[in-house]
Amino acid sequence: MKITFLGTGTSQGIPIIGSTHPVCLSENEKDKRLRVSVLVEWDDYCYVIDCGPDFRQQMLNAKVSKIDGIVFTHEHADHTMGLDDIRPFFFRQGDIDLYAHKRVFKALKKRFDYIFTTKTKYPGVPNVVTHVVKNKPFKLGNLFVTPIDGLHHKLQVFGYRFSDFAYLTDMKTVPDAEIEKLQNLEVLVVNALREKPHISHFNLEEALAFIEKVNPKRAYLTHISHHLGFHDDVQQKLPKNVFLAYDNLQITI
Ligand SMILES: [Zn+2]
């Protein structure tokens, strides 16, 4: 299985428009972060988790020419606003499969009414096939994927386990029964916003405590704010099996 980090930044991305914060001004490529998303590839399958405002650029950066579907964690704008840019995939492949909680589809139908409408569509509007995700394993390609149910402040969010890889973002609370589903992981990806506590995200300390509890072979931090600091400085402070993810990082499991 190959994982590509398409984006590792928090909702505004890094650099933030107009910001003069040193991290936003950094020339290190590892300090430039598009909105969070990963590409998960195995055998001939290729799925994207989330579809934020940087989706188009991310598909170009990773040279993706075919996707088998998009799996959503939740409906916030930084995870969904790129949906219109599935058009090139739709033109080549036909209807695009989307996987999400039914509440997320309700939000998407409001924002992208012209995609989901059953009436006559404007020419060039993509078609999608919706697959409602409940908190039980579902099939993607030849693999059963297990949802991990958590809370982003009070909003329900799904993380996903694909075989020995799990991706959790925008988590603040994960019940013990869900942590049970994360045993024996090769790679865990989890959000770590900054050092200061935040109402809806793990801060660094909470992310590291979570990683210790789950005990994967290695862990990667994502959904990062400029307040966390420079990539190279933060990396030095992390335990030896924990890595700060950065855009375009690829790992094989
Ligand atoms: Zn987010």
Compact overview of the structure:
The chain is an alpha/beta fold. The protein has helices spanning 22-25, 55-61, 77-80, 87-93, 102-111, 113-116, 176-179, 204-214, 231-237; strands spanning 2-7, 37-42, 45-49, 69-71, 96-100, 128-132, 138-140, 143-152, 155-162, 165-168, 187-191, 218-222, 242-244, 250-252.
Structure overview:
It is a single chain. This protein has 253 residues and is an alpha/beta fold. It has nine helices and 14 strands. The protein has helices at 22-25, 55-61, 77-80, 87-93, 102-111, 113-116, 176-179, 204-214, 231-237, and strands at residues 2-7, 37-42, 45-49, 69-71, 96-100, 128-132, 138-140, 143-152, 155-162, 165-168, 187-191, 218-222, 242-244, 250-252. β7 and β8 form a beta hairpin. It binds zinc ion (ZN). Zinc ion is lined by residues 11, 76, 78-79, 170, 223. InterPro entries: Metallo-B-lactamas, RibonucZ/Hydroxyglut_hydro. Residues 34-223 form the Metallo-beta-lactamase domain.
